[in-house]
Amino acid sequence: MMSKCSMDCGVKPGDDAARAMRFSPRLRIAITLLVMSFSAAHAQALDKVRFGTNWVAEGEHGGFYQALADGTYKKYGLDVTIVPGGPNVNNRILLPVGKLDFFMSANTLQSFDAVENNIPTIAVAASFQKDPQVLIARPNVQKFEDLKKLTLFVSKEGMATYFQWLKSEYGFDESKVKPYTFNPQPFLADKNSAMQGYVTSEPYAIEERARFKPSVFLLADYGFNSYSTLIETRRDLVEKKPDLVRRFVNASIIGWYHYIYGDSKPGNDLIKKQNPEMTDALLANSIAKMKQYGIVDSGDSLRLGIGAMSDATMKSFYEKMVRAGVVKAGIDYRKAYTLQFVDKGVGLNLRPKK
Known about the structure:
The protein has 354 residues and is α/β, with parallel strands linked by helices. The protein folds into three domains: 16-45; 46-129 and 226-350, 3-Layer(aba) Sandwich (D-Maltodextrin-Binding Protein, domain 2); 133-222, Periplasmic binding protein-like II (D-Maltodextrin-Binding Protein, domain 2, 3-Layer(aba) Sandwich). The chain has helices spanning 4-9, 16-45, 62-69, 72-75, 108-116, 156-160, 162-170, 185-189, 202-210, 235-240, 242-261, 265-274, 280-292, 301-304, 311-323; strands at residues 47-52, 78-83, 102-107, 121-128, 133-137, 151-154, 177-179, 193-198, 215-218, 228-234. The strands form two sheets. It has a five-stranded mixed β-sheet. Helix 3 packs across helix 11 and helix 3 crosses helix 12 (265-274). Residues 1-23 have low confidence and may be disordered.
């Protein structure tokens, strides 16, 4: 017996091709609507995040720009806007008032300062295991102790922080210090001097300009064990939206692995777009020095993943800063950070095998 559809519709039994031809336009429309609906829902699902850096775009921010440029943030459900800092921009004050969701702080001292001044922010990851701060001298200066004999060009901020540690731990003399104005010329003019800098930039600039390879002393390798390039957020965001914090931290970690060990071109292109003064050569140097000195990936991060922090390191650095008179004794430094979002081994599979 033929079905009612076969008799009424003029379609022979078993004529599947005809049946498909009859209904395919409707099916195509339905599928198109479903795809459009899914795409719209997916777009709406992206959480908007504003992340402020502490300086203009540069290689030292590469992991964040990489995660934005190569789509990693988007894969983690985030629509991230990076807000660059600069000489006349103070992004840090925008975090506690809610104008930013995350901020890239310079070092652990800023996290301690937040606790001391009851600022409701907290460090949730440390992109750099080592602070890139260095002292730079001429090639004939081979020992760290020899720096004490030289005139030192140190900035106002440096005098208030790491130089106090140099006095406390190594007996450096404040009378030998002259102001550093972020210009290498005074150092180049005085052969019996040394100057501050970042391992990723100033030594390269000096070599290019003066045509000699300077001696470089990374303070982290002599005991100044501050974390650097930390991700800070507000305490209320950690409490109310921990999944958002986790996704931003994890995506940033992946971004750093891609930038340091993979194809850094997407991140570099975005950095150059935001800061045209950056060159391919300078960016390549920054990456090479971060790898050479273990700035991003060394110590605890080798087994716990980039972004790692530890109670032991925080305690050690806090005690050194108290001895140096930089941090007030008695503050609850443990409120400065949380290990809730790090030390999970995220991205370890992305590190090249030796």
